[in-house]
Amino acid sequence: MADYSWFNKRYQRSIDQLRPWSGNPRLNPEEQHVNLRDFVEDIIQEDGDKANFMDLVRSIATNGFIPADPIVVWKDAKNDRYYVAEGNRRVLALKLLRDPSKAPREIRGTVKSLSKTWTRIDKIHVNIAPSLEDAEWYISQRNSTSSILKRWSRLQQMRWVEFLYEKYADDPEVLVQKSNMSLSEIEQIIRYIRLLNLVNEEQVKSVLTEDEYRRATAHTFPITIFERFFNLTKVREAWGFDFDGPNIIFKNKAGFLTAFTEVIRRIVSNKQDYKLDTRNVSADRIDDLLDILPKVNLEMSDPFKVGNKDEPEPDPTPEPEPQPDPKPSHREQKGNIYRNRLILSFYQLNTSEARLSQLFYELKRLSVNSYVSVCAAAVRIFLELAILDFIQSEGLVEEFQRRDGKELKKILLKTRIDFLTRYSKLKDNKTAKKILLDLINEKETYSLDILNGYVHSKSTEYLNKQYLNGFWDHIFPLLQAMLDITEDPED
């Protein structure tokens, strides 16, 4: 039996420590969510959602933060970061009130005005689940159709079921328990989500306008009309597709996608005489509708099955294909001080700090050989921003200011590093502590003094890509301890 005792305890955590969850079904899965602004822009993309979110921000600014409804987080064992499983909108609102400069431009003025009247808080009570898996049962309960609390839209609920299905499809018992649904209900949801995901096929996406694609991938997409249309027997017969549990089988996928694209365009259209809605999507009107929609040539056989692997049915006796010589892996460049990119392409930085994100992105693309001085200056800035972000996210600002008797912005980087060598989280990490000590020891090869020398010294002894790559590799374990840096297995 699962242990839910963690839900009976609440702990105070710094708001800066809490990270938005990019897997939140409220978000568009096709969008990138790197910094705080990305999350907020997605949340307020639709006018109704924007109004609801701003009502939330005003309520917190006017009435204070009322911790009646639990905020559930889990701690990622890989990076010791806290991610918000439930309560993302409230945490985003708190973060914006604390720092209005991170708000999207369209709401920044209002947030800035509200923040001036807000009684600032630094910490809130949260329930800490041991892992995302432990938090999943509460997410399902919190947003189920029987909940009296503010629920997700139907499509958001379906996306959540999709997430659970991809994770637990091999264990139906756990899947049913986590989703609070029967297996047949889950499979029905998955088949329609897989159908809708076809909007990302190049044959479809290239035909849709930017606005049509945005509407088709938004959580406000009228999924009920979509389900009603594709559930009609006459549609399945005319367009040559059928359901096999959660999977979809097509007789002519290319022909189907042409007709499918027109349906998507009509569902998201604002033109009353063109759009598909509850008035014209019905069993008694489907013949007239099929007459004006594109036809699918079922004599052109192009059998295809959309299932767990989203690939064609394998030929029972396939001919072996010649395999190309394997290309050398980018990972072979690890530790190579002669490489031409400071940060290798498979590394990803997950942060809500826009400046860190942008610098990381640019250092992955700049040639160290061609722009060694620019890279050197960027590394110095990146290191300072990483340490600042760590101090803020760990809630250490007041402690640092108390120790030095100055505002944080007036405390020199060298002094900040010296303080961090005595901070338990890094002090107990022998590798991180040694790197910190090396940085403030001017006799060390990879010290802050030498890196500062690019600005303050006329010496060109270390002005080469070998040294700079070596410097980055030396401090990288420290950066991994402070930031959420991962490796992309697909790259």
Task: Describe the protein.
By secondary structure, the chain is an alpha+beta fold. Helix content is about 50%, strand content about 10%. It contains 22 helices and ten strands. It has helices at about 35-45, 45-65, 90-100, 105-115, 130-140, 155-170, 170-180, 185-195, 200-205, 210-215, 225-230, 235-240, 255-270, 285-290, 355-365, 370-395, 395-405, 415-420, 425, 430-440, 450-455, 465-480; strands spanning about 10-15, 20, 70-75, 80-85, 125-130, 240-245, 245-250, 305, 345-350, 485. A five-stranded mixed β-sheet has the order 1-5-3-4-2. The chain has a three-stranded antiparallel β-sheet with strand order 6-7-8. Strand 6 and strand 7 (about 245-250) form a beta hairpin. Helix 2 (about 45-65) packs parallel to helix 4 (about 105-115), helix 16 (about 370-395) packs across helix 21 (about 450-455) and helix 20 crosses helix 22 (about 465-480).
Number of helical segments? 22
The span between the termini is 39 Å
* Rg on CA atoms, Å: 27 Å
The percent of residues in helical segments reads 40-55%
Counted beta strands: 10
| Low-confidence blocks of residues | 145-150, 309-331
- Major beta sheet summary: 5 strands, mixed
Strand neighbour order, sheet with most strands = 1-5-3-4-2
The secondary structure category is alpha+beta
Q: What number is the mean pLDDT?
A: 82
Fraction in beta strands? 5-15%
Which outline best applies? globular
